Amino acid sequence: MRQVVVVTGIPGSGKTTVCNLAKEIAEKDKGKSLSVINFGTVMVELLEKKGKHVHRDSMRKSDLQMQIQLQKEAAETISRRIAEAGNDVIVDTHMCVKTGRGFLPGLPRHVLDAFKPDLFVLVEAPAEEILSRRVKDKSRLRDIVLKKDVEEELLFSRLMACACAVQTGAPVKIVINEQGKQKEAALKLLEVMEL
Fold it and tell me: Into how many domains does the chain fold?
């Protein structure tokens, strides 16, 4: 039976790298088909269809109502893609998004209802490593933050995951993605998915 696994992590945790590597390993080494749908990419695609060009890291600084509406549209699009997939699906997203007005839930009730997740996986790394990755990644527009800010983001992500688990009944698993050990993290993700 097909499963929907929501994989989350704060910026710099390496969640997208882990998701893509898990897909590659599943297909090449295990002969299993696996789809990865990136929530942020879908949001950017929807904006581009409307003629708006916004860097994905700037979206969280946009008008809050616009973010909420875009999140809803992206959830509907992803729900259709999940329904069309004939295999297991990973939805790569964030448990929460730090906005100017506070933490916006990445998976509010209507998104959970659309996805019907079977499992939540939080990809995490030590706060110091996340800080280092953010500084080194020149392809992204990252805010300058302190270790305590990263620790707060990790905490909010876990709290939101607990709320999602309570609402859906789906379990939550944390996968640690240490520096240089992305393959091990991807294998752990596949193990939790029972692939």
Answer: 1
| DSSP output for the chain | ---EEEEE--TTS-HHHHHHHHHHHHHHHS---EEEEEHHHHHHHHHHHTT----TTTGGGS-HHHHHHHHHHHHHHHHHHHHH-SSEEEEEE-SEEEETTEEEESS-HHHHHHH--SEEEEEE--HHHHHHHHHH-TTS-PPP--HHHHHHHHHHHHHHHHHHHHHH---EEEEE--TT-HHHHHHHHHHHTT-
For the stretch 88-114, pLDDT in tens is 999 999 999 988 889 999 999 999 999
Q: Return the minimum-mean-pLDDT range out of 56-60, 80-84, 99-103, 185-189.
A: 56-60
**Which residue range is the domain that position 70 belongs to?**
4-192
CATH of the domain at 72: 3.40.50.300
Residue 67 exposure: Cα atoms within 13 Å on the Cβ side: 23
